Amino acid sequence: MKPEILVMAPSPSPAVMAQFDVHFTCHHVWRLPADEHAAFIATVGAGVRALATTGTIGMDAALAARLPRLELVAVNGIGVDAVDFELTRARGIRVTNTPGVLTDDVADLAVALLLAAARRIPALDHYVRGGQWQARVPLQPARTLRGKTAGIYGFGRIGKAVAQRLAGFGMALRYFQPNVVAATDVPRSASLLALAQESDYLVVCAPGGAATRGMIGPAVLAALGPQGTLINVARGSIVDEAALVAALAAGTLGAAGLDVFANEPEVPVALAALPNVVLTPHVGSLTVETRHAMGQLVIDNLLAHFAGAPLLTPVQ
C-alpha cells in the first residue's frame, strides 16, 4: 500500500508531479479553493504520513494537529522558517529541504536585481516605451558597479555565489554573519551595521526566522545611505518594510531590488508606487531546470524516508 502524502502546492515540473502519483497516494490540497482546505484536510489527515510543502507555506501547529501520523515534512525550498520546529522535535517528525540545487538561479536573480536597480533598467524601459526618448526628456544618470563595494549579509551557499558573480564586475566584497566563514578571502565586517556603512550595495542572503526578523531596520538603512542600494532575495521578514518605504521615499536610501516581502503576496501600495525600487514576485528559483531539481529532491527524500534509507538533505 502506498504511503499517503498531503501535497500543499504543485511543482511546475510535470515529471515531478507524475512521480508523486506513481509512488504515493496523494491528497492534493492545492487543487481546491482556499476556503475548502481545512475541511479537506480533516477528511484525509488521519492517514497522512508525509507533508510535501513549500518554504512559504511551511507547517504550523494547526496543520500538524490534523496529521496525527505525520513522519516527515518535505519542504520544496531552502527556507524552513515557516515550519514549527518546536512541534516537529516534540513529535519526532523529520524535516528536509532542497538546498544546493537553487543556489545559482537565486544568485543570478540577486545580481539581476542589483543591475536593474543600479542602472535603472525598469525606468529606462518605461522611458523608451512612453515616448520620452523621442521627446528628448532629460535622463537621470545611473550608478556604476565597478569600484564599488558589495556587502553580503549571510554568507552561505547563495551569499558566496553572489560574491563570485559580483567580483566579475570589479566590485570589492565584504560579508557579515554571526559566525566567521572559513576558507574565504572575502573580509568579514564587525557587524551588520558596519557592513552597511562599508557598502554601496547591500545584498541580503541570510536565513529567515526569529533570529533575523527586522534586522535590516532604520539604523542599517541609514548607514547604507542615500547613494546605497538594498537587494533582498532571502526573506521579507528580515527587512523592516515600513522603514524601507520611508527611507526610499525620503531619499535617505538610494534604491532597492526586492524579490521577497513581509506579507506575500501582498506588497505595500506605497512601496509599489516608488520609482527607485525594482520588484519581482519571489521567483529566485523559478526556472524550468531548478524547479524540476527542487521537486526531484523532494521526491527523493520522500522515497528515502519510506525505504528506511538516510534522508538526502535533512534539516532535522
UniProtKB/TrEMBL annotation:
Gene Ontology cellular-component terms for this entry are: cytosol
Single annotated GO MF: NAD binding
Q: Which family does it belong to?
A: Belongs to the D-isomer specific 2-hydroxyacid dehydrogenase family.
Q: What is this protein called?
A: Dihydrofolate reductase
Q: Which UniProt keywords apply?
A: NAD, NADP, Oxidoreductase
The source's superkingdom equals: Bacteria
Span of domain D-isomer specific 2-hydroxyacid dehydrogenase NAD-binding: 111-284
Annotated D-isomer specific 2-hydroxyacid dehydrogenase catalytic domain ranges read 26-315
Matching Pfam families: 2-Hacid_dh, 2-Hacid_dh_C
Q: Which InterPro entries does the entry mention?
A: D-isomer_2-hydroxyacid_DH, D-isomer_2_OHA_DH_cat_dom, D-isomer_DH_NAD-bd, NAD(P)-bd_dom_sf
